[in-house]
Amino acid sequence: MDIHLAIEGRQDLAGQIYRQLRAGIVEGRLTGGTRLPSTRELATQLGVSRKTTLDAFDRLLSEGYLTARPGAGTFVADGLHRLPSQSAPRQKSQQTSHEPPQPPQPHHDPHPQPLWEQMPDTVTLPGSVLGPHDTSPFDFQGGVIDKSLFPFDVWRTCVNHALRSQARSRGTYRAVAGEQELRLAVARYLAFNRAVPSNWDDVIVTQGAQHALDLLARVTLRPGDVAAIEDPGYPPARACFSAAGAKVVPVPVDAQGLIVSALPDDARLVYVTPSHQFPLGMPMSLERRVELLEWAQQRGVVVIEDDYDCEYRFEGRPMEPLKSLDRAGLVAYVGTFSKTIFPELRVGYMVPPVSLMATLCKARQVCDWHGCTLTQTALARFMLDGDFAKHLRRTHKAYAARRERLLAHLQGPLSAWLDPIVPSAGIHLAALLKAPLTEAVVIEAARKASIGLYGLGTFHLRDNAPPGLIFGYGSIPVDHIDTALDTLARLLPTL
């Protein structure tokens, strides 16, 4: 039979022939039992050497797409017509005269669990690295840091040290909970900076805070269990618990943080951000912290404490973490280096209750065994040599200046339209809009003026939440803050 193949150029001729013949066989255009022309005939037809067609046929023969019958020729292998396909059955007019009509085959697509069909396509988080990225220089994305402040030359030295260390080690799988050197560095850092008492073997290194939340959800939640979260709160945490099959119940917050009396009695897990509530920024009062721990102890509930942004405190004395008050072994303390170094590093940590440690290690091994040991070794050197502390002092000074300038605008020229909630820590702050302004109107008007603003609405599960904006200042320079907010002050009276 004649075969119509197209040869382009004079490169990889055997590969071109192989790929076209294979595609014809897999897609059903060359059916089982079809006799192909000889390699000599095909070479003459295509204007190539016989060696080229021989190479293509040999590969197809070795992979089972063709069969050779001595004295008869080369034929398409039988059985490939049973390959499943999403395409509709071929019409009778497309079939060769010797081919019997094939009855339609039942087709079933693989389907995910129903809960995944209810999840959004992406876990959007306006005002953060997970939200829409604005290319404007006047962008107030939350959760974004200034990488220009990071000492990459020092980091390069740490990575080189890690490479030399790994070159001397055996090529084996490493400890599930992470490199001992990094776990020691994290334990020392937490004890000194956050008053979280822990030994190195109490720490599990993770691929960021979200990974820690996923592991904790895996080992504590069954489908249908209740997971309580703050409202407004952190959408990726909400998505993580929903993906585990939990029933996510929003719990309101006030000026003292999570309202413990509003927690559902049947909750199996509670997720909180007590150091400065996300996204509003106020810390949970000591009275509420004690109340939450008492409530959890009475019910045997796991409390996840996400201590994000705890390194950047600008006012007052740091509040003690829940973990430092926990005497009953209920709190899983979660942290990350995404805000202090950069998100692409993908390194976080947790200090879980002792009762969960072994199970979390099992879950980690099932999931991905362990993270990148090269990065962990480099980060341990960065921390233990004191470079991490130096970096934090440098970034703290830069972010403090940006925060001061942002508050000067919000509490000054913009105070007629915005009521800022002044946090004592973090690299973002929230501001409520005064009537009759709405989030959508302000955000769209700002966008037209090349200013990236983001609303608080997405962080709420309630429909009647007050409108507001989130102002991230981690990645926007001081002079750009002035330019953007001066423009906004001229813009808002016209809305």
Describe the secondary structure blueprint for this structure.
Layout: H1 13-26, E1 35-36, H2 39-46, H3 50-62, E2 66-69, E3 73-76, H4 114-117, E4 138-139, H5 152-167, H6 180-193, E5 204-206, H7 209-220, E6 226-231, H8 235-243, E7 247-254, E8 257-258, E9 267-272, H9 286-299, E10 302-306, H10 322-325, E11 331-336, E12 348-351, H11 354-367, H12 373-384, H13 387-410, E13 418-421, E14 428-433, H14 439-448, E15 451-452, E16 454-455, E17 468-472, H15 478-491
Parallel strand pairs: 4-15, 6-7, 6-9, 9-10, 10-11
Antiparallel strand pairs: 1-3, 2-3, 5-12, 7-8, 11-12, 13-14, 14-17, 16-17
Structure explained in plain terms:
The chain has 495 residues and is of the alpha/beta class. The chain folds into 3 domains: 13-88, Orthogonal Bundle (Arc Repressor Mutant, subunit A), CATH 1.10.10; 122-145 and 393-494, Aspartate Aminotransferase, domain 1, CATH 3.90.1150.10; 150-385, Aspartate Aminotransferase, domain 2 (3-Layer(aba) Sandwich). Helix content is 37%, strand content 14%. It has helices at 13-26, 39-46, 50-62, 114-117, 152-167, 180-193, 209-220, 235-243, 286-299, 322-325, 354-367, 373-384, 387-410, 439-448, 478-491, and strands spanning 35-36, 66-69, 73-76, 138-139, 204-206, 226-231, 247-254, 257-258, 267-272, 302-306, 331-336, 348-351, 418-421, 428-433, 451-452, 454-455, 468-472. Strands 5-12-11-10-9-6-7-8 form an 8-stranded mixed beta sheet, sandwiched between helices. A 4-stranded antiparallel beta sheet has the order 13-14-17-16, with helices on one face. A hairpin with a 3-residue loop joins β2 and β3. The longest helix has 24 residues, at 387-410. The model is unreliable at 87-97 and 124-132 (pLDDT under 50).
